[in-house]
C-alpha cells in the first residue's frame, strides 16, 4: 500500500529495509494498518490514504459487502505539518464513494503507541454517514539504531525504569519485548498488541566460573551488537545473552517477565539444556527451518516494496522467528505446546498458555522529548549581564580599611543588644532558608543605597583635608 509520491526519499534498497528503515526519516513516521470496513455499501471497495501532498496507492479491491483489506502503509512526516489531517478515501470501482478524516496528526496520537479506532465514513453523493472503516495508526519519532551515549555504561542513551523486586528467574521463563523499529511496528499493527519478540530464560554453567548463571536464548538481528556470552562477539540469529545485559541494553521500549508457575522437571530440563547448546552451535535442523518462512502477507508484501527478498534477505527479519524458537524450547522442556514447523506465530501466542503466572513489567522506557513541545515549555529566564557604571573608580586602600573597621564596630554593638540577638537567632532556627534570602536581599539593597552616601563621604573627607 505504498506508492508513488508517498515518500520524500527515493525507493529504499534492501540494505535499508528493514534494518535501518526508521533511520531514513529523521523526524516523525506514521504507519497505518487498514483492516476492514462495515456497512459502507457500494461494490469493489478499495481505500487510499492522503496526508497533505503524500498519498498511498489504493488497496486491492474487495468484493465483500464488509471488506477486509489488511494492508500497511508508511508516511515519512519530515516535511509534513504537525497538525496535518489524515484523509481516508474509499472508492467503489474507480469512483470516490466515501471519505473520513483523522484530525490533527500526530497531535491526537500518543507517540509509540498503537491507536486502534473505527472512523465514520460520509458518502460523497449524499453527504450522509455510510458505514465505518477500521484503522490502526502508529506515530513515532524514534530511530531504530539508537545513538550510543559517550558518558554512560549503557549502550543506549535514555532513561529506563527497572523493577526486579517481584521477579525470580528460572529456566523456562519467558521475556516478551516491545521494540520500536520498523519490523516491531509492523508486528504491533498487525497483532494489535505491544509484544514484538520473545526470549527464553536459561540457567546455564558459565564458561569461566562453572557456576550457574542466567542467560537469554533469543533469535534476533542484534542491532545493538550485544556480545554473545559464549562466542564473545556480536552475532545475528540465535544467541545466548547475559540476562541482565539483554534487559538493560535492549534497543526498545518495554520488557515483561512471564514466569512459569512450576519449575521444569529434571529430565525435561536436561533435554532442554542439551538442545540449547545444540541450537546455539547451529547443529540442529531448527536453524535452517526459516529459509522460506510464511510471514504474514501484510508484512511480506510491505517489505518487498523496499527491495526485501524473502529467500536472499531472510536475516533481515529474524525477530519474526523468536516466538518459534521459544515454543520449541518449551516443548522440549516437557510443556504441552502446539508448534507447527514453518509456521509464523506472533508473540501473543505465548499468552494463551496457562502454565505462566502473572507477568511483571521489568523495564519501561522514558518517552522521547517532542521538539515542538520543548519550545513551548516554560524555561528559566536568562540572567541579564551586570551593567558597568562609567566613571566609577575603586575606593583607595585607606577608605576600604576604614569602611571595614566601621562595619566591625557596628556588628559588635548589635551583638551587645540581647533582645535583637535573641529574635534573630530564633528566626534563623525556624526559617533558615528564608533568613538567608532576606540577608542576601538586604545586603544587596544596602550596597546599592550606599553608593551616593559613599560619594558624599568622600567629598566631606576631602573638605576636612
Write the layout of secondary structure elements.
Elements: H1 21-24, E1 29-38, E2 45-51, E3 54-55, E4 68-76, E5 86-92, E6 95-102, E7 115-123, E8 129-140, E9 160-162, E10 174-179, H2 182-191, E11 197-205, E12 212-220, E13 237-242, H3 243-249, E14 252-258, H4 266-281, H5 297-304, H6 322-332, E15 360-365, H7 371-376, H8 397-416, H9 418-430, H10 432-464
Antiparallel strand pairs: 1-4, 1-8, 2-3, 2-5, 5-6, 6-7, 7-8, 9-15, 10-11, 10-14, 11-12, 12-13, 14-15
Helix pairs in contact: 9-10
Helix percent reads 25-40%
Strand count: 15
Question: Tell me, what's the shape?
Answer: elongated
Low confidence ranges: 1-17, 149-153, 370-393, 418-453
Number of helices: 10
Instruction: Please list the strands of the largest sheet in the order they lie side by side.
Output: 3-2-5-6-7-8-1-4
Beta-strand portion reads 15-25%
Q: Based on the structure, what is the oligomeric state of the protein chains? A: single chain
Explain the overall architecture.
The chain has ten helices and 15 strands. It starts with 20 loop residues before the first helix and ends with a helix. 28% of the residues lie in helices and 24% in strands. The strands form two sheets. An eight-stranded antiparallel β-sheet has the order 3-2-5-6-7-8-1-4. The protein has a seven-stranded antiparallel β-sheet with strand order 9-15-14-10-11-12-13, sandwiched between helices. Residues 1-17, 149-153, 370-393 and 418-453 have low confidence and may be disordered. With 465 residues, the protein is of the alpha+beta class. It is elongated.
Amino acid at each position: 500500500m505504498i506508492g508513488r509520491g508517498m515518500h520524500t526519499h527515493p525507493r529504499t534498497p534492501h540494505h535499508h529495509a528493514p534494518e535501518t528503515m526508521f533511520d531514513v526519516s529523521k523526524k516523525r513516521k506514521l504507519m497505518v494498518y487498514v483492516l476492514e470496513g462495515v456497512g459502507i455499501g457500494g461494490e469493489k471497495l478499495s481505500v487510499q490514504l492522503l496526508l497533505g501532498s503524500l498519498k498511498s496507492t489504493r488497496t486491492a479491491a474487495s468484493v465483500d459487502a464488509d471488506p477486509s483489506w489488511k494492508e500497511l502503509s508508511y508516511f515519512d512526516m519530515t516535511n509534513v505539518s504537525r497538525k496535518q489531517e489524515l484523509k481516508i478515501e474509499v472508492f467503489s470501482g474507480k469512483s470516490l464513494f466515501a471519505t473520513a478524516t483523522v484530525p490533527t496528526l500526530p497531535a491526537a496520537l500518543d507517540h509509540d503507541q498503537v491507536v486502534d479506532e473505527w472512523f465514520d465514513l460520509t458518502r460523497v453523493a449524499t453527504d450522509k454517514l455510510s458505514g465505518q472503516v477500521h484503522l490502526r495508526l502508529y506515530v513515532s519519532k524514534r530511530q531504530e539504531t539508537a545513538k550510543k551515549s559517550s558518558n554512560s555504561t549503557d549502550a543506549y542513551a535514555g532513561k529506563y525504569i527497572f523493577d526486579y523486586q517481584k521477579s525470580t528467574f528460572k529456566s523456562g521463563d519467558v521475556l516478551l519485548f516491545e521494540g520500536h523499529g520498523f519490523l516491531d511496528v509492523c508486528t504491533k499493527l498487525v497483532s494489535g498488541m505491544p509484544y514484538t519478540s520473545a526470549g527464553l530464560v536459561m540457567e546455564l554453567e558459565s564458561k569461566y566460573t562453572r557456576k550457574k548463571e542466567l542467560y537469554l536464548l533469543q533469535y534476533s538481528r542484534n542491532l545493538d551488537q550485544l556480545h554473545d556470552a559464549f562466542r564473545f562477539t556480536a552475532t545475528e540469529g540465535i544467541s545466548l545473552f547475559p540476562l541482565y545485559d539483554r534487559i538493560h541494553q535492549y534497543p526498545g521500549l518495554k520488557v515483561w517477565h512471564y514466569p512459569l508457575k512450576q519449575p521444569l522437571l529434571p529430565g525435561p530440563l536436561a533435554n532442554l539444556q542439551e538442545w540449547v547448546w545444540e541450537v546455539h552451535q547451529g547443529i540442529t535442523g531448527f536453524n535452517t527451518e526459516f529459509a522460506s518462512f510464511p510471514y504474514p502477507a501484510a508484512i511480506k508484501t510491505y517489505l518487498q516494496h523496499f527491495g526485501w527478498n524473502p529467500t536472499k534477505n531472510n536475516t533481515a527479519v529474524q525477530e519474526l522467528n523468536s516466538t518459534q524458537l521459544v515454543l520449541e524450547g518449551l516443548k522440549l522442556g516437557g510443556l504441552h505446546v502446539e508448534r507447527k514447523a514453518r509456521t509464523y506465530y506472533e508473540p501473543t501466542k505465548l499468552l494463551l498458555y496457562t502454565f505462566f503466572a502473572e507477568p511483571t513489567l521489568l523495564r519501561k522506557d522514558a518517552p522521547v522529548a517532542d521538539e515542538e513541545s520543548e519550545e513551548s515549555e516554560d524555561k528559566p529566564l536568562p540572567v541579564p549581564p551586570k551593567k558597568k557604571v562609567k566613571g566609577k573608580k575603586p575606593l583607595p586602600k585607606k577608605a576600604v580599611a576604614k569602611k571595614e573597621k566601621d562595619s566591625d564596630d557596628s556588628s559588635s554593638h548589635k551583638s551587645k543588644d540581647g533582645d535583637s540577638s535573641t529574635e534573630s537567632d530564633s528566626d534563623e532556627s525556624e526559617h533558615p532558608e528564608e533568613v538567608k534570602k532576606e540577608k542576601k536581599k538586604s545586603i544587596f539593597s544596602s550596597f546599592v543605597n550606599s553608593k551616593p552616601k559613599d560619594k558624599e563621604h568622600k567629598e566631606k573627607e576631602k573638605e576636612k583635608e
